[in-house]
Amino acid sequence: MATLVRLPKVKGRIGLSVCGGAPYYRSVFIADVLLRSEADKCGKIWAGDEILSVNGNSVRGSGKAYVGRLIQESDDVVALEIRSWQLDKEIESKGLDIALKALKHKLVAKLPQDAVDILGICHAMLVNDTLAVQLNNLKRMAQFCKAFAHEVCAFTEEFGKAVAVNKDIAEVFGQLASTERQTDVSGAFLLVASKLRKIAACGEESICLCKQALQSVHTLLSKALPDTQLTVKKYADQKFEYLAYCLKTHEMEVNEEENFLEFEPWNPIYLIWETDYRDCVHLRHKRRKQFNNTRSGVFDKIKMLETKLEGDLPVHMETIARAQHSFYESAVELNQDIVDVFPITCTIEWGALTTHYMEQQMAQLGAEDGTPLDQSNGNDSNHHEHHDQNGDRHLLD
Fold this sequence. Notes:
Shape: rod-shaped
Number of helices: 10
Largest sheet: 4 strands, antiparallel
Number of strands: 8
Strand order of the largest sheet: 1-6-4-5
């Protein structure tokens, strides 16, 4: 089915190249459509399509030079009658030849520039890709984020241990206060325990803020970054497949110039070559469309992720720094209150300190000498209490 397409000329061009035509081929067809040209923007023209007429002038049986001259001599608008090329679905699936050519480009992309120059391989499209530079910057930023998260995680773990020590010490002073009969001493112990608990609470609040920052960084590294990497991989696969069709098209053109021209015009071999070539240029055009569409999406994703990392990471670092600064300011103030309480004069009785650690130690000692724990608290024959003249009790050994 024929389609009439009107294309405005921009700087004397409409953005397509033609191939085929008399005396060797049955028809003149479109070899390539330039990206972002008027022919590309209309969306109705594809490589491989047959040109039936130009501005109402039939070009059937004509050569490609005649078609090119008609287009050049046209006014501001060129009217093309196009017959779309019907691609076989089996041909559209990627064959072994294209897969091997795509693999070749992947290998070339990993070679150093010097080696590529020596081999004479066209490396421009693989090297001069700004997306590759952005991807490398993103990888370096991701490595920094991982190192940052690792250090903050290690710091938070050690800081949590220090906070736990404050809580344990507060528990000890609380137990001392509950067993102390002197009111002023008991009040001093309670004050110390209260201040230590406040320090621990400030530390836990700081840890909570650090964990929130870590969670945000972890989300970027575990979700946003892998998603962007998958999109880049998809883009790279389409890029290498497109380059594979470029290479195959070039090989067919060289093969035509070197071998086909020795045959007589209208030889059946030209008909076979024409069909294969139109399939190849059509698929090249299609893969380039997919490649460029994916490319714009990849740029957007990388840009968003870079903006996210560059914007969020300093905020998280500032949050952690402020949390620690706030903790240390509170800790200094509370520790000064504790320092003002000491020295404390008191009498400590046996059994007053019953922390979990001491219970474990006493249980171990009792297990070694066969004495139960409840019989070793003040009832041992080696220990006895003595009351002095003021009524204070001292544990004598």
